[in-house]
Amino acid sequence: MKSKTLKILTLLLLSLFLLLSGIVVAAIAQQDPVDSPSTQPVEVSTPATGGEHFAYSPMGRRDPFKPLIQKKQKIAKKIKGRPEKFKGPLEKFELSQYRLIALMVVKGIPRAMVKAPDGKSYTVKVGEYIGMNDGVVKRIETKVIVIDENGLRVEKSPDRIVVEEVGLDSYTGQEVKEYRYIAM
C-alpha cells in the first residue's frame, strides 16, 4: 500500500512540475523582444567602486566583433571594383598567399618576381593589380645597406612589395586605403 501511495504522489509532483514549467515557458515566449535581456541595461556593481551601480545599454553601439575595415569582396555593392573580364591571373588569390622570390631592376625600372599558391611565378612592376581586393603595387623596395660611423653594416629596409588596397570602414562607411606587404 505504501508503494502505491508513493507512486501516486510521485506522479502528482511530476505533473505539477510540468504544469509550472509550461507556464514559465509560455510567459517567456510572450515577452516582448525589445525587452529581451540582450538589449536591456545591465546593472553591475563592483567591490572597487564601493557598491555603486551603473547600467550598460548596447543600444546604438556597433558590434565589437565586427571588423572596422571590411574588404571590397564583402561589400561589392558600395565600392565598385575592377570588372571580372579585366582581372588577370595575379588577382585570383589573396595577397597573403603570394611569396616574394626575387627583386630586379630592368632598364631602371624595379620589378619583382612572386610565386602564387598554384606554383606559377609572375613578374610584377609598379602600377599592376595584385590580390583579390584590387590591390595595386605602389612600390618595390629593396634592401638598403648603410655603413654607420662605427663601421658597422646597417640594413635600413627589407626587400618587399608595397601594395595598396582600398576597403570600406564599416563604422563610418568611408573608403580607407590600407598598405600591405609581400616579403621574402
Describe this structure in words.
This protein has 184 residues and is α+β, with helices and mostly antiparallel strands. It folds into two domains: 2-56; 69-183, SH3 type barrels (Roll). Helices cover 15% and strands 35% of the residues. A hairpin with a 5-residue loop joins strand 9 and strand 10 (153-155).
Question: Which structural traits does this protein have?
Answer:
184 residues; alpha+beta; SH3 type barrels; 5-stranded antiparallel β-sheet; 3-stranded antiparallel β-sheet; 1 helix
Number of helices: 1
Distance linking N and C termini: 86 Å
CATH class of the largest domain: Mainly Beta
Structural class: alpha+beta
Strand content: 25-35%
Helix proportion of residues, in percent? 10-25%
Oligomer: single chain
Q: Number of DSSP strands?
A: 12
Question: What are the secondary-structure elements, in order, as H or E?
Answer: HEEEEEEEEEEEE
Radius of gyration, rounded? 31 Å
Shape: elongated
What name is given to the CATH topology of the largest domain? Answer: SH3 type barrels
Do you know the CATH architecture of the largest domain? Roll
Uncertain regions spanning at least 5 consecutive residues: 74-78
What is the arithmetic mean of pLDDT?
A: 80
Show the helix and strand layout.
Elements: H1 2-29, E1 42-45, E2 53-56, E3 69-70, E4 99-106, E5 109-115, E6 121-125, E7 129-130, E8 135-141, E9 145-147, E10 153-155, E11 160-169, E12 175-183
Short description:
With 184 residues, the protein is of the alpha+beta class.
